[in-house]
Amino acid sequence: MTTPPGSSRRSSHAEAILGPELSARLPQTKVLLVGAGGIGCELLKNIVLAGFGHITLLDLDTIDLSNLNRQFLFRKKDVKQSKALVAAKTASAFNPNVRITPIHGNIKEPQFDISWFKQYDIVLNALDNLEARRHVNKMCLAAGVPLVESGTAGYLGQVQPIVKDRAECFDCVPKSTPKTFPVCTIRSTPSQPIHCIVWAKSYLLPQLFGEDEDAGGELDEAEKQGENAQEIATLRKEAVAFKAVRAALRAPAEMTSSDAAKIVFAKVFRSDIENLLSMADMWRSREPPTPLDFDAIRNGTFVAKKSHQPNGNGTAVNGANGAAPKAPGSAATEQLLNGASSRTTSAASLKDQRTLSLVDNLELFVASVNRLAARIRSGKEEAISFDKDDDDTLDFVTASANLRSTAYGIITKSRWEVKEMAGNIIPAIATTNAIISGLIVLQAFHLLRKSYNSLRNVHVQFRPSMPLSAIKISLPNDSCGVCRDNFAEILCDPARVTLGEVIDGILGDGEGEGAGTGKRDVSVYEDKRVLSDPDWDDNLDRTLESLNVTRGKFLSIVDDDGELETIQLGIGILPPNHSVDEPPYILPTPLPQPKRKVKPRLLEKTPPPPPTGTKRSAPDDDDVPSAKRSKNNGVLQVDKSFSPSKRRKLEEDGLIMIDLADSNLDDADIIVID
Ligand SMILES: [Zn+2]
């Protein structure tokens, strides 16, 4: 027997549970684990103990002090080291028969191309951002490698096994994107604490301490989006006045720092608000704000507006806790946050969770402006940006947001709450990560056994009666713009191969088994860029490199008649022994054979009448080439051949596809942008 001594006892439990067949395979199984954070650390431990033999662990991050409460492979001495490297080292000790290869890098780097993914038997995602998860999803579909996707948010978590053509992919169900707010809500008319927090974090802090950039771009954009022009004009004036304030903060100066804070205060909490108030129209249907008064707040004579939300402390002149006004500028921040001057219960006296009075917020504002200004003046930092773990910026955002809330009659928030909201923090819970990591391994076993009927989407949910729900996996969404495509890889030298050679090569001559679909009308994209279409061939003689189509990227070859699946062609590199005398590319064998698509309802309409003036026409309306025009008897119409992926691309570009008057479209088919 070749079993190393000790290993039979070590693996006897796994053998009993997994059965001889799977447990014998695991030591040869190659697994890619993407992410060595909360889920990743737990999962690495699990797969090392389960007996996976070859593990590649990839993460681009370094260890932060705040990780240590749940990422148990790291210790304090590891802070600032690579997560992948440290996790691999720690976990290697759990099982001497396992080889872990750590990579400190970004999974989106070009060398991690389709060929690279193909070397794995299975991929496990333990990622925390949408973009990387979508990327790995696509790469696994392209490489034909099964994936287990996962995520946690507080007490909630989910595990999703993904295997091409058998299960929904990560993109089959659209994901909601992070919430954004209109510029005017943030800048002029906040109505919720979060609006004031976003303002303090993303607008005021960068304006005062960020890089000196022109905020005009954002306002130009807002104007284009049709936001109130008068409001925008006022905001532009505000932006100009900021220059003087920035200068005051940077003056090496005889000016005492308290004066600088006062100048900032007078501008943003008084004159800017007064300017806004002068626009009577704005306040017809909403409660107008109250300009704040620095000295009156310090003297305790300022009467704030009553907050229009429950539990507000806006009525408190000197704060909810009745603290006496502090001597100007003398309040130590620590003392402030500790609530040393107030009689508070032990729970409320927790530094970060205490409700700050108006005067507390003013003093915290002064203190944090001074500290930030001193950092800039010291010359060590040119610009300061928000970091929830940087106390100075968190104090500044807390105080500024609360002062603004007071002006607008919005309830204020504790430093703790601001930290959560500004940092978009959903508390990470070690237990949830542990449960999810266990479930990932179970789904991975089903995938490795190819017991596709056993696959489940599993959710950890906040329901005591059913904390775990396991749902049979669904089939792919027919209109998914990712997994319904036909994936292939071409190995090539992008500096030598032309776009035309690639397209002709991939389409093949269409005769016999594996000879492609033959020449047909196609449009070619890289991401959202159109590189060619049947009536525009300017790029066909250009090399891929000159078109910036390089290793790791995809060419999307879209059938113009909308009948065949889109070909997603990944760009890989030639093997080192490829002779320069041979063509600078190796086509996939067999060539892609995209299937005929299930026709969406949209395409079954009979010939439409000419478009009416109120309808938007085809996105490429202006340059619809004559050939296309004649096909449609000169009538401009939305090309019926838009495939779901082409449609998706156009929609992502903000282009709207509305079919013609008699087309009975459901609302779901139309994206309207006002
Ligand atoms: Zn899909």
Automatic annotation (TrEMBL):
**Which is an annotated Pfam family here?**
ThiF
Question: Can you tell me which residues bind ATP?
Answer: 35-40, 59, 67-70, 83, 128-133
Pathway of this protein? Protein modification; protein sumoylation
Highest taxon in the source lineage: Eukaryota
Listed GO cellular component terms? cytoplasm; SUMO activating enzyme complex
Could you mention a single GO BP entry for this protein?
Answer: protein sumoylation
What sequence ranges are listed for the domain THIF-type NAD/FAD binding fold?
A: 17-481
Residue ranges annotated as compositionally biased, kind Low complexity, are 311-332
Using the UniProt annotation, give all residue ranges assigned to the region (Disordered).
305-338, 574-649
Active site as annotated = C184 (glycyl thioester intermediate)
To which protein family does this belong? Belongs to the ubiquitin-activating E1 family.
Q: What is this protein called?
A: Ubiquitin-activating enzyme E1-like
Q: Give the species this sequence originates from.
A: Cristinia sonorae
